[in-house]
């Protein structure tokens, strides 16, 4: 697996994942602080291959195919107008 992103994750697996974020709206979204793992086990790839859309890889045996496992450490509800401060859940 030889991409700049995989190298970046290996060098620093800490990440923030934003779900539902759109910089053109001011709506609520979820921010997840997480650690990312690179998964190359064929069993995991086979299982996920059955449900993904196959847009980026022509075969599940592609040597550049890997899975990113996101391991959340905290989850925060952001930008919710009904809350004075974000709600944070530490895991």
Automatic annotation (TrEMBL):
State the superkingdom: Bacteria
Looking at the record, the residues that make up the General stress protein FMN-binding split barrel domain are 3-74
Give coiled-coil spans as residue ranges. Answer: none
Which PANTHER family did the record assign? PROTEIN BLI-3
The entry's protein name is: General stress protein
Organism from which the protein derives: Staphylococcus aureus
What is the taxonomic lineage of the source species?
Bacteria, Bacillati, Bacillota, Bacilli, Bacillales
